[in-house]
């Protein structure tokens, strides 16, 4: 057991879930990758020189989890960070792509003991491998444990990293030799756990519904409507942990088209992307009677936590897509009819999302966590059962550059957000992030063999075909145009 000197604070009710999943080997990491065009000489020591500033700005980078196998795990402080533990360089082989490297990173377990729960992985494009001087294309991936940050934390980190790089550039610094052992700040102040920042009141109706879903005897209440969710969960002995990643890039002019059309129809871009998933699956899986989507979102607006901080304050909500919605999609034959059903589905989701946000934090899924006494047992009992969602869509939204002097050396070209395979989660996950006036990157991640490749292909095509589909007019729009 740890002593008081070894502890920063106990893990909160949300944070406890992530070490439990790590213990079972069912979720390793989150990554947010920034792709840069570098127009000057770049050495790996430049990243090492940025680490002290990052440690000062983001306390979670200075901690690890102690008493991980007990009912009360805690954050412990790291006295030092060894650069060897947090800096890694990978080389692309001929024909390799970023997605393949991210798959490898997600499948790597975290080291035991007092080690950082993050690392920076530098990956050079093939043409840059032997030339780190001019016009290099670099991928810098932040790989981190979900216990120290949500997806938005990856954005906050990269904005801090870019500021550190810009500051070194402005000062004309080009570090050649940096110590491997980097001391952490003497004071490490973590943000309080989410339950100390806000309350999560539950209505009796919401609570009873969740209890019945979990424990109600089937002989009394009948079998619930089943939704398609790929293969049922299996132990890692029967289905080894292997992450698959598919990256889809939507170019800036097409992103503008999607955003403009979404606004005209009174929905968000996430709503449109969600509708594209539902539409692709409805056609690809004609026998499916329903789907269930899980949509994470941040609680920072409720807790007042800055978007610049590294924390995990994510929650989510579920949306069911019943047979009526799927029939409406499937009966559409022409592009115009498919577009009409797409907007109908997007509007349906958007209304659900607005309702959820309107009542938050009341009747929130996070509010059920006090009833989870043993997080490991909570997840272990899910093995062998049907998955709890068809898909998860987690869209970090628009990443805006931090204010400051523009860099002559570093040009941020794109970002990618990925999660490791989720053997106890949804059949697949869609992760989105975009840069201002640049591309939207969508990454589909799933556990190998849980979903057939052609289903992932269908979802990917659903995204890439969206801009062309929007060129058609839905029947009601066509009628309105003709009447003028």
Keywords:
35% helix, 5-stranded mixed β-sheet, 16 helices, globular, single chain, 484 residues, 6-stranded mixed β-sheet, alpha+beta, disordered C terminus
Can you walk through the features of this model?
- With 484 residues, this protein is α+β, with helices and mostly antiparallel strands.
- Helices cover 35% and strands 22% of the residues.
- It contains 16 helices and 16 strands.
- It has helices spanning 17-24, 45-57, 83-86, 98-106, 151-170, 204-215, 218-221, 252-264, 269-284, 300-303, 323-330, 335-359, 375-380, 453-464, 466-469, 475-483, and strands at 9-10, 30-38, 63-66, 74-77, 80-82, 87-91, 118-124, 136-144, 181-183, 243-250, 291-298, 314-321, 391-399, 410-419, 428-435, 440-447.
- The protein has a 6-stranded mixed beta sheet, with helices on both faces. The protein has a 5-stranded mixed beta sheet with strand order 6-7-8-2-14, with helices on both faces.
- A hairpin with a 4-residue loop joins strand 15 and strand 16.
